[in-house]
Specification:
The complex is a heterodimer of chains A (295) and B (449).
Chain A lengths: L1 H9 L2 H30 L13 H7 L2 H34 L2 H16 L2 H12 L5 H8 L11 H29 L3 H9 L4 H29 L3 H6 L11 H11 L3 H9 L1 H22 L1
Chain B lengths: L1 H23 L11 E7 L6 H16 L2 E7 L5 H12 L5 E5 L2 H4 L8 H11 L4 H7 E2 L2 E2 L2 E2 L5 E2 L1 E5 H8 L3 H4 L8 H5 L3 H13 L16 H8 L16 H13 L14 H7 L5 E4 L2 H9 L1 H4 L2 E4 L9 E5 L1 E5 L6 H11 L2 H10 L9 H5 L3 H4 L17 E3 L7 H9 L2 H10 L5 H15 L3
Parallel strand pairs in B: 1-2, 1-3, 11-13
Antiparallel strand pairs in B: 3-12, 4-5, 6-12, 7-11, 8-9, 8-10
The chains are: A mainly alpha (295), B alpha/beta (449).
Chain lengths: 295, 449
């Protein structure tokens, strides 16, 4: 009797749903929520992790010149890299969408290669191209009587190099997302526009982009988060140099937290990203939701 | 019922018989009666060095009934540091762990004091290098025991043919492979003389190269600063970077970098090795590894290399030192066996075998061990190439950031304050005042408690 009532209780839809989700909830709790709360706790300890200092570490960072340099660089890096990734992704998606579907597959496959190779590995290949003394690109430039470029040893070129590699790795993600969005736009709309005499530019502005708005917003949001938190490209190419001018939050947190053994300050540096990205995510997701409701 | 009584009697009989046997039998030592020991050891650059070290440890384990397992962990990509950080936080992992340079300071709260071990070693073999003590004798306790591998000095590694041809300096005469040094010649070997030589070599298309970037190889700058008496933080922990000595060394570096390749700001730890091995460069600061690799990859260049003393500054001749210790985690399960092993690893035959296996790369931290070792005397080609790799003259080994207290010096090292300060002036063109102001701000940061 007791068992059957428990069975009935268990069979109710909300409970089944809860138990079905339980493995995922446990994973999220163990792998996301617990580390997040623990890192907040760590960021509120002193260097020896023996005393609670509240927001002392954050206030301490505000007074550090190098930290503000890292903030500026991270924002600059994320904005420039995401802009070019989005632009190149859009152009490439349109180009692929325009060719006959039979030939699309091989182009899609080829263009996705930079995205599917582990970045730490592909960046090593780029490092050989940019190597400070024996750069393969410089070898070619010198061969054609052009001056060698200090790819990694001068601030401007070092920033250029890490942004370039980030765009190379990340643009295919935009391409595939935009291509999927383009494919979902009904062909009737373009046909109707053609009958009305709309040219390519008008179709792009009045049909394609409005129909892709949500996917563009979400892709940009996702990419900003990933780009902001980038670690491997900078770590392999420049290790934050020259003179700390290519450090991002993640690489600087690694330098301070792991290499220098100041885990609480490292945690504070990495958590500094959270309010910036949280605000951005809130704004973008709100506009996406708003548009969805309008539709 | 009857059956049960019988069984009880049988059991009691058997038990008394077994007890008698156990008491009467002598203690039989099994293969691993002294427990297990897990070691996390730095993966040596020199091929074959790990095998020799492992065979020594395993043989010790077999002799002493300890089941020993050695994991060689590379320092490439900071894997050694990441493993140490993970183990120290999880409080589990290896028992004995390699502690290069500042690891002892970084993990001091997780390391077992080894005063008894190191005092026994000193009593038996004599003192350690002062600079080595600076790394591991913390808060009045030894937090590491001298490792048989991994410690080295950054000597100058120069192309003696190029120095002779273009700079008119005969390095083999100045630093011969025997005890007959000419004090006058060596006394004139200072940073100013080196600057003149660097200019000539640069003009000959064979510049001197050393990194001024965020990489451990920039420690040569620490020795240069010390030789000018330029302290960033003094021994009392006060920021003293705003000084005439620091300005003097920055002035010197502004001149020297004119004759160095511009790529040095992006060099990593292997760049200087490639620089000399490829034949492009005339001198670097390095241990014996560049020569060892050149022997394999470019034997012609290897025959023209010479290890020798660094130039002298106004306050002395300082060579950067990179000491390595073995620490014992406080959560280790077999501390007594680990301490016995640490004592054994400081024995002269063990250290000699390791130095030989490393082709002379490793410098023992126990002075008597490196004073009497013939590996450096016998290394070739050319004959005597490594004779002056262990210090023979008036050089003083020094850690980056010295004389700041170790916990501050370690931060100065790991955050590359000296390299960044120098690069701000020499690469970015900042004024001394602006660069020093930046360094003051940075040093306030590294000194937080």
């Amino acid at each position: 009797m007791k068992f059957s009532s428990f069975y009935l209780w268990l069979r109710q839809k909300p409970r089944i749903a809860f138990f079905m989700c339980l493995p995922l909830i446990l994973m999220v709790v163990c792998l996301i929520i617990y580390p997040f709360i623990y890192s907040i706790f760590l960021s509120m300890l002193n260097k020896a992790e023996t005393k609670f200092v509240g927001i002392g570490n954050y206030l301490f960072l505000f007074k550090r010149e190098t930290f503000w340099l890292v903030v500026q660089q991270s924002i600059f890096f994320a904005l420039v890299a995401v802009f070019f990734k989005a632009l190149i992704g859009l152009i490439a998606a349109h180009s692929i969408n325009a060719i006959p579907s039979k030939g699309q597959r091989k182009w899609r496959g080829m263009l996705l290669i930079p995205w599917v190779i582990p970045p730490a590995l592909s960046t090593l290949g780029w490092w050989w191209l940019f190597e400070p003394t024996y750069s393969a690109i410089n070898w070619f430039l010198v061969k054609i009587s052009l001056p060698a470029i200090p790819w990694l040893s001068e601030t401007f070129w070092a920033r250029f190099s890490i942004i370039l590699v980030n765009i190379w790795v990340g643009a295919p993600f935009f391409l595939i997302m935009y291509l999927a969005a383009l494919k979902s736009i009904p062909a009737d709309l373009y046909e109707a526009a053609s009958i009305d005499g709309a040219n390519y530019k008008q179709k792009l502005y009045y049909i394609t982009l409005p129909m892709m708005k949500n996917i563009i917003s979400i892709t940009i949001l996702f990419s900003i988060i990933v780009t902001f938190a980038n670690f491997d490209i900078v770590r392999v190419l420049t290790r934050g140099g020259p003179i700390d001018t290519t450090h991002l939050f993640a690489t600087y947190a690694f330098r301070v937290g792991i290499e220098s053994g100041d885990i609480p300050l490292g945690a504070a540096v990495s958590l500094f990203m959270f309010p910036i990205l949280g605000t951005l995510a809130f704004i973008i997701l709100r506009s996406v939701r708003k548009r969805a409701l309008e539709v | 019922m009857k059956k049960a009584n019988l069984q009880r009697r049988k059991f009691i009989k058997g038990l008394s018989a077994t007890s008698g046997y156990v008491i009467a039998s002598p203690y039989v030592k099994t293969a691993h009666s002294a427990g297990k020991l897990l070691l996390g050891i730095w993966d040596h650059w020199i091929p074959g060095a790990n095998d020799v070290l492992e065979s020594i440890i395993v043989a010790w384990g077999e002799k002493n009934g300890v089941e020993v397992k050695v994991d060689f962990i590379t320092s490439i990509g900071n894997k050694l540091l990441l493993t140490a950080q993970a183990e120290s936080r999880a409080k589990t992992g290896h028992d004995v762990f390699s502690m290069p340079t500042w690891y002892c300071s970084m993990f001091r709260h997780r390391l077992e004091p080894l005063d008894d071990v190191v005092e026994d070693i000193i009593k038996k073999h004599g003192p350690l290098l002062d600079s080595a003590k600076f790394y591991a004798h913390l808060d009045g306790h030894w937090r590491g025991s001298p490792a048989p591998t991994g410690s080295f000095f950054d000597s100058m590694v120069s192309r003696f043919d190029l120095f002779k041809e273009h700079a008119g300096i005969d390095l083999q005469t100045m630093f011969p492979a025997n005890e007959n040094r000419d004090a006058n010649l060596i006394n004139n070997w200072d940073w100013d003389a080196f600057l003149l030589a660097a200019e000539k070599l640069y003009k000959a298309g064979k510049p001197f190269g050393a990194t001024i970037g965020a990489t451990p190889d920039s420690r040569w700058l620490g020795a240069l600063f010390t030789s000018y008496g330029a302290e960033l933080v003094n021994k009392n922990g006060e920021i003293t970077v705003d000084s005439d000595e620091v300005r003097q060394v920055l002035e010197y570096m502004s001149k020297l970098t004119e004759f160095m390749p511009k790529s040095i700001y992006a060099w990593d730890d292997s760049s200087n090795n490639r620089w000399i091995i490829s034949g492009q460069g005339s001198a670097i600061f390095n241990p014996a590894s560049a020569w060892a690799v050149a022997k394999r990859d470019n034997p012609d260049i290897a025959t023209k290399l010479w290890h020798h003393d660094v130039p002298r500054g106004p306050k002395g001749r300082y060579r950067s030192d990179n000491s390595q210790y073995w620490g014992l985690w406080d959560f280790a399960e077999n501390k007594s066996a680990a301490k016995d092993l640490l004592r054994y690893m400081a024995e002269r035959p063990v250290v000699d075998a390791c130095v030989k296996a490393s082709q002379g790369y490793d410098i023992p931290l126990i002075i008597s061990h490196f004073n009497q070792n013939k590996t450096w005397l016998e290394a070739s080609p050319p004959d005597g190439v490594l004779y002056n790799y262990p210090m023979k003259g008036d050089e003083i080994p020094v850690a980056v950031g010295y004389p700041a207290p170790p916990e501050i010096a370690s931060q100065i090292t790991t955050q590359y304050v000296i390299a960044n300060l120098t690069a701000r002036v020499t690469s970015k063109g900042h004024s001394f005042e602006k660069a020093i102001k930046w360094a003051e701000n940075e040093l306030e940061g590294v000194m937080r408690g």
